[in-house]
Amino acid sequence: MAKTTTILMALRAAEQQLAVAGQATSVAQYLLQEGQGWSFTELVQHYREPATPVFLATYQAQVDRVCAGEPAQYVLGHAPFFGREFQVTAATLIPRQETEELVEWILASVTTPIRLLDVGTGSGAIAVSLKAEQPDWTVTATDISAAAVDVARANAQALAAPVTFAVGDLLAPVSGQRFDVIVSNPPYIDHSELPEMDESVKRFEPQGALFAADHGLAFYRRFAASIGDFLVPHGQFFAEIGYQQGPAVKAIFTTAYPQATVTIKADINGHDRMVRVQL
């Protein structure tokens, strides 16, 4: 009689397969929990249950894709961000934990109802999270990728966070409008960093959302040249930056806006990760 495969046995087999493929074994548990919507406690409670043939086939297919290098979030089609699940596709970056700290900084810095613009919204993680946390804020989001905006719009609808979306390059879609806060997580990786990057990021995540010219500083220069026309008096600009870019980014905005207060903020790991420009 064939031995019944339990959830725990399937998990251990997946961990072994991932290890052989040179992938993180923790992904096996991540796929199970995220795929089934289980907490760790719930996963343990299911350990001894028999795995159905459909479950095994689905889980095996997911593990195979990760072993081939595909990020687990793309395999599942969603990723956690700021306590919510966001749909992600090959048209969007996978939301990062560091970006949650940018959302936290904005929420801590602004306490009154505002008009906010998220530029380069991708999956909509920043815009939708801020709207969900502050329903009385008016939030607009743009992206040059129509496919990304489709994903962001779906996330906004799924999470009941009404955001106005527009497709176009940087600030062009909101010409003539002004905002209290503009936020962006722009492309900021220098092409010279390509050899050091994770292979799965290079192969699967949208390159246009990762890399920027001028040693990764091109978009900060573009924002410095334009945000004054889109922010109200005393408005604020927030952005994520590369961990080595703090001094250069600060110099760009200080030069463009000598009267502004430009602050570089470190992430939880102590790396420069965010900039705030207070006009």
TrEMBL record:
InterPro entries cross-referenced by the UniProt entry: DNA_methylase_N6_adenine_CS, HemK-like, N5-glutamine_MTase, PrmC_N, RF_methyltr_PrmC, SAM-dependent_MTases_sf, Small_mtfrase_dom
Gene Ontology BP term (one): methylation
Binding site for substrate: N185, P186, P187, Y188
Domain Methyltransferase small: 114-193
Domain of life: Bacteria
GO MF annotation terms: peptide chain release factor N(5)-glutamine methyltransferase activity
Keywords: Methyltransferase, S-adenosyl-L-methionine, Transferase
Cross-referenced HAMAP family: RF_methyltr_PrmC
Function, in words: Methylates the class 1 translation termination release factors RF1/PrfA and RF2/PrfB on the glutamine residue of the universally conserved GGQ motif.
PANTHER family reported in the protein's UniProt record: HEMK METHYLTRANSFERASE (PTHR18895), MTRF1L RELEASE FACTOR GLUTAMINE METHYLTRANSFERASE (PTHR18895:SF74)
Name of the protein in its database record: Release factor glutamine methyltransferase
Lineage: Bacteria, Bacillati, Bacillota, Bacilli, Lactobacillales
Gene that produces this protein: prmC
